[in-house]
Structures are given as structure tokens and as C-alpha cells.
Amino acid sequence: MSSPIKPRGTASRASTAALPSQVQRGREALLALDANALELFARVVAAGSFAEAARRLGQTRAAVSRRIAAIEAQAGVTLLARTTRSLGLTEAGRRLAAHARGVQEAADAARRSVRSGRAALEGRLRITAVPTFGRLVLAPLLARFQHKHRSLRFELLFTDRQVDLLKEGIDIAFRLTRKPPPDWLAQPVMAYRVGAFAAPAMGAQPLAGPAALADWPGLLLGVSADSVPLLWRKRSGHDDGSDSVRVEVQPAIWSDDMEALVTLARAGAGVVFAPDYCVQADLQAGRLVDLLPGWQLPVAEGELVQALTLPPAIAPRSARELVKFVREACSVELSSEVRPPRTSA
What are residue 217's DSSP bridge partners? Predict the structure, then answer.
């Protein structure tokens, strides 16, 4: 476990002579640092390393390192002496650390006071999500959460377009992604699987394997083509391709709307390739059948819905509580089968 950064040992005579002048030149710049910068510096010093500070702050190591470098650039002095294995405080860093620690302690006390004095969640949360997850999974959960917290308001943006989270003032973004933005905290809330589903009216029953899909009319999301190659992987298989099967599917209908394709599949128009959370209610009611329960269609975005928020130190408490609520409701288990969201409060 990392320990607080300790001052460096004896410096050379030349560097020791240079330090007072460096501190003097940077004194005004150091005093001009804002409270956020001072608090971050204090937390890095207390953590003892960029990696540990990043873990505690819910950020990446690179993000913390960049922010410290920006603080040093603003101050015009080096605050931390870096080696491949450790960090140490320079003379200027030692002077600033005591002041920064006081700022951190005051900030922590202020947060505790606010939290203890306001148990109820209130204010407004601006939330974005991909449309299918937003309408089918998130919206019912938001209704339950809002029922518990009547003073909380939601602004919802369900869209497939790329959203600039900072520019558009987003508090929480629910995304299907392997590569979340580095400066945002990403928390997996639900695992999902893309499968093949069709209506019993078409004689649908589990198939022997993906090759049988070649005889089924496909209902596909995206741009039209005469045929589409789909690479299926066994759910319990390996990622080296040994448990994969490539199948050419003949599309009957193309659409840019997944819910429309699911409706068509329910009406017997063909087999839809969809995330399982889009068809969970239909499977439970017997309106659709999972044709390949032992297989999944890998997608570039990955198999996790992730909640993106600002780091814990600055994210609204309401955002943190909502992410926790959604995560628990979806019963996310990263290495097990997907479970549908719980329906009881």
C-alpha cells in the first residue's frame, strides 16, 4: 500500500542554492492556485503515487499526472521529483503541501457537513443513453428511483449520436463501450449478449448451430446489403477463433431502429439479431425464442453497459446514488449470464 510522499534527501550544493530563488519566483504563482488544484495536490501527496491517487479519485493515472503537470506549469516550479519507482517532494512542494493539506481538510469537512445536513436527493440530473437501453431498461428504473426521491428531476437524452459529455453538461452517460473517456469514471452496470431471436409462429426453436441461420430471413440493423457475414462465438468458448462460426445471413428487412426490428420479429417477419435486454420481456412471455442460447454475436462496443460520471470527488451525490441503484437493479455480474432487471422495488 502506498504511503504519503516524504521529502527528498540532501540535494547537491548547486541545486540547494537554486531552490530559494525558485521558490521566491514561484511564490505568487503558488498562492494563485485554486482550491481544486490544491486539493488534488494534497491527495496525490497523501496517496504516495500517481497510481494510488488515481485509484482513490476514480481517475486514470495519466489524467492525474497531466493535472499535476498543469499545476506545476502554472506555478512555474517543480513540486514533485519523479523517478521510475517513486515520487518525492521538492522544497517548493514541501512548502505547498502543508497549505494544500489544510485546503483538503476544509473541503472534506464542508462535504461532510453538506451530506449530513441534506439526506434527501434533490436538483436535476442530465442523463444520456442509447435509445434501446434508455427506453427498455433505464426509464422504468428511473421511475422507481424518482418515486423514492421526489425532489429530484431528470433531463433525458436518448440518442445514438456521439455526445460531448462535458460540453453538453451530462451528469451520467449510459454507454455500450469498450473505451470510455479517460477522464470520466466508468462503472459497468449490466452485461448483455447479442443473440438471434424469432417468433414461435415461424416454427422457431433452438438451432443446432449458427450455420442454420443461413436459411432464415434476417432482420438487421444498419445499412442494406445483399448478404451479411456474421461471426458467432460460443458463450463458453475461447477468443482465439477456435470456437467461432462465420455465417452469411440473407437480410429480408433493414432498419435503423432496433425496436422496429424486434416488433417485426414478434410478428413473424424473420430473425432479429439484438441485445438480449431488448427482447427480455418477449422471451419471458413466449413471444420470441432464443435460437442460439449457447452462442453470442461479438460486437465492437463490447458486452457491457457502462455508466460514465465525473470522478467521485466532484460528481453529484445524486448521480452516484442513481448509478448504484441501476447497477444493483440490473444485478451485474461480469463473468456470469445476464440477468434481467428486477421488477420489484
Answer: 250
Cα 237 to Cα 320: distance, rounded to the nearest angstrom: 35
Cα separation of 303 and 296, whole Å? 10
Q: Nearest-CA neighbor of 310 among 144, 126, 152?
A: 126
CA distance 145 to 124: 13
What does the radius of gyration of the chain's CA atoms come to, in whole angstroms? 26
Alpha-carbon distance of 260 to 208, in angstroms, equals: 27
The residue with cell 477463433 is 241
Query: Can you name the residues that pair with 274 across neighbouring β-strands?
Result: 195
**Strand 172-176, strand 244-255: pairing:** unpaired
Per-residue pLDDT tens digits of the chain, which is 345 residues long: 555 665 554 444 444 444 455 445 545 555 557 788 888 888 888 888 888 888 888 888 899 889 999 888 888 889 888 876 678 888 888 888 888 888 888 877 777 666 654 557 888 999 999 999 999 999 999 999 999 999 899 999 999 887 877 788 899 999 988 888 877 889 999 999 999 999 998 888 999 999 999 989 999 988 777 778 899 999 875 555 568 999 999 899 999 999 999 999 999 999 999 999 999 999 999 999 999 999 999 988 888 999 999 887 778 889 999 999 999 998 744 333 434 444 343
Contacts of 224 (CB under 8 A, 6+ apart): 251, 254
C-alpha separations of 84 from 2, 10, 75 in Å: 15, 19, 24
> Which residues are CB-contacts of 94 (< 8 A; sequence separation ≥ 6)?
7
d(CA 193, CA 82): 44
| Cross-strand partners of 195 | 274
Contact at 8 Å (CB) between 145 and 109?
no
Output the DSSP codes for 137-170.
IIHHHHHHHHHH-TTEEEEEEE-SS---TTTTT-
Nearest to 264 by CA among 279, 276, 250, 280: 279
Q: Residue 113's CB: how many other CB atoms inside 10 A?
A: 10
3-state secondary structure of 258: helix
Burial of 146 (0-12, 13-18, 19+ CB in 10 A): middle
